[in-house]
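Sequence design from tokenized structure. All designs in this work follow the same two-part layout: the structure record, then the generated sequence. An example of the structure record is given first.
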């Protein structure tokens, strides 16, 4: 039997003006944005719609902004009666997935990701960490190269396993530079530095994970009503306490996105609905398996196509 997965984008998908058409058209969307502003005690809505882009790109702003836009479109899909058999999100997007699964309230989620973003920015002094996208490398070979570079004293690790031949590495600036210089040893065709404020999803983020663990201890978690495929394990989880633990691990562990998508396909998912800004996940999913259907719900026209009233 055909199944549907709702998937939610992470950092990098943001854009000034995202969600504005839905905000203008639906009172329920305006309500979500208002709840975000109130929960955070800041004018997040103005930042999302008006920028400036540099402020929106700051991790502590990007994370609640993307979550808010994803949940706004999610509410419209839910109102239409469209249901998911599974949910998943890429890094930050996992929090949107947890709102969709009823694990977290939207208000708790938006406050948590704001704090998460601050902790991630503070974990490593500016300029000491870096990330880069490695194109064309084979996963095991790249992992071995990272281990060799780390053994030489320059920590670097796999951070995002996005799709075949697209893996992000993260670590010290020297470690990432060494991957750029030696990437051909792992079959890399290109190594592209990423504009990020820290070495996310690496062991250098453990200080951020410790702070997040303390913050999450005060947040109410409920068992998932829909299975969530976790970034850390690429397997489904529904137990509230396990989800809480995995969110802490996620900060310093690789995002196993390719594995997660393959797992969902193995469970019978043939339709992926990407909910939120951009089409990043749609591109990755199609590179993993061109045979599945992918719909990106990031504007009113996409909602109309799904017959949302």
């Amino acid at each position: 039997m055909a199944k549907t997965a709702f998937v939610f984008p992470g950092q990098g998908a943001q854009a000034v003006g995202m969600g504005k058409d839905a905000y203008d058209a639906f009172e329920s969307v305006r309500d979500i944005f208002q709840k975000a502003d109130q929960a955070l005690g800041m004018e997040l809505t103005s930042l999302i719609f008006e920028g400036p882009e540099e402020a929106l790109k700051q991790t502590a702003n990007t994370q609640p902004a993307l979550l808010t836009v994803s949940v706004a479109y999610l509410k419209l899909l839910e109102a239409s009666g469209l249901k998911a058999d599974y949910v998943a999100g890429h890094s930050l997007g996992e929090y949107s997935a947890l709102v969709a699964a009823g694990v977290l309230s939207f208000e708790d989620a938006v406050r948590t990701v704001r704090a998460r973003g601050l902790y991630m920015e503070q974990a490593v002094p500016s300029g000491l960490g870096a990330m880069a996208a490695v194109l064309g490398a084979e996963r095991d070979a790249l992992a071995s190269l990272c281990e060799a570079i780390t053994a030489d004293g320059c920590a670097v690790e796999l951070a995002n396993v996005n799709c075949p031949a697209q893996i992000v590495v993260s670590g010290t600036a020297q470690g990432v530079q060494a991957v750029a210089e030696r990437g051909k040893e792992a079959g890399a065709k290109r190594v592209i530095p990423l504009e990020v404020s820290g070495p996310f999803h690496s062991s250098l983020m453990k200080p951020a994970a410790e702070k997040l663990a303390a913050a999450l201890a005060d947040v109410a978690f409920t068992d998932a009503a829909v299975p969530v495929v976790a970034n850390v394990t690429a397997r489904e989880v529904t137990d509230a306490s396990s989800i809480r633990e995995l969110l802490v691990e996620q900060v310093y562990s690789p995002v196993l996105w390719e594995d997660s998508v393959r797992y969902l396909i193995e469970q019978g998912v043939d339709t992926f609905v990407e909910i939120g800004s951009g089409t990043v996940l749609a591109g990755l999913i199609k590179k993993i398996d061109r045979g599945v259907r992918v719909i990106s719900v990031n504007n009113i026209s996409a909602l109309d196509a799904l017959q949302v009233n």
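The chain has a mean pLDDT of 96. We note this feature because it recurs in several other targets discussed in the main text.
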